[in-house]
Amino acid sequence: MTAKLSKISLPLKLTFLIFSMVLNCMGIVILQLSEAKITYEKLGFLESFKDIPIAFISLFAVNFISKTGTKKALVSALVIVGICSCFLPFIEDFWFYKVWFAIIGTCFAVGKICVFGIIRNNISDEKSLAKMMNSVEASFMVGIFIVNTGFGWLISSRYSEYWKFGFLSITVLCAVTIFLFSKLNISEAKKTENKSLMAELSVFVKPTTIMFLAVVFFIVFVEQGFNSWLPSFYKNHLNVNSFFALQATSFLALFSYAGRTATANIIHRFSLSKYYILCISLIIAVLVIIVGIQYFDSVNSGIILFLFPVIGLFLSPLYPVVNSKMIAQIDREKINLFTSLIVIFSSLGSSVSSIIMAVLFGKQLLNYYPLYILLAVSVLFTVSLIYFKLAGKKL
């Protein structure tokens, strides 16, 4: 190990913070462009311009990363994100959002594979991996909080027409992170002999791996229903203003940050599988309360405004916990390829979820939003139980 964990932790956290801000500004874009009379159907497919490149590029990104090294590949991705964020405020056309999100998605695919690879190359045991991943992924929640709070302030202020200039702050963050990486020597995985992509992927064709990828798909499927669409649900169904609608996602991110930070500090005391199942059980409990309030008390009860963000406390640890559990079992030489599969199924979960949510919102079926989320979490719970059973862990 050529770089201490304490030294690589900050730039890795900043990397996830940056990607969180550019990926999760989707809720803001949906909110703002819907007021510009762009339909929810078009906005729902806008998410696909981000997610499809993530899925498509991921497998090819592995070869690029293996040739350049994780550090150079990650820095390249950050440079492109910084430049694109600098251009966004000055272009008005809707087509540029499609191009912008496609480029961001591609860079994220490269960036996430690099970050996971760096963590795996420096940590070997399962619980230390879980702690590090929860710590790094917690910064992803900070990014959601910052982007919704910052843009929420801009949108509700007298400078609302200049809301897109907030993306210039992302350019500055990219420059700082690149500088920090330039000062680090990061250990790289040993290069292996070239094999065909299908031959390498065939190693992962196992029931446990398939169920793990299904779990990843449904976790992101559920998360996307909150992160991009909760502001629109708050505004259109619960009748709150744009600023408060965005703060709902900010508080969701704040609770999510608390959940991942707490998990990073206490996870070594618990079985990963038991901790995971406890979290998902608590999510279901909160959603049952929300559905009960909506259907038996009041459709637009104010209590719902505050209950939805609490879910982040229990939802946020699921992704890093289940990832760290599986990644710890993967050889270091194969981690980039395996991470690409995680990225692919994560992006598919995000894209499918957003398309379904676009239909739900477009057809004015907002009454079913909490019920829809509850159904998705129930499916996730079932798939997770099957995965842990196959992984040989008693719950």
Could you characterize what this model shows?
Helix 10 runs antiparallel to helix 11 and helix 12 (272-296) packs antiparallel against helix 16 (369-390). By secondary structure, the chain is mainly alpha-helical. It starts with a helix and ends in a 5-residue tail after the last helix. It is globular, with a radius of gyration of 20 Å. The protein has 16 helices and no strands. It has helices spanning 5-23, 26-35, 40-68, 70-87, 94-122, 126-156, 168-182, 197-202, 207-227, 230-236, 242-266, 272-296, 302-315, 318-327, 335-362, 369-390.
Record the SSE blueprint.
Blueprint: H1 5-23, H2 26-35, H3 40-68, H4 70-87, H5 94-122, H6 126-156, H7 168-182, H8 197-202, H9 207-227, H10 230-236, H11 242-266, H12 272-296, H13 302-315, H14 318-327, H15 335-362, H16 369-390
Helix pairs in contact: 1-5, 1-6, 1-7, 2-3, 3-4, 3-5, 3-15, 4-5, 4-7, 5-15, 6-11, 6-14, 9-14, 9-15, 9-16, 10-11, 11-13, 12-13, 12-14, 12-16
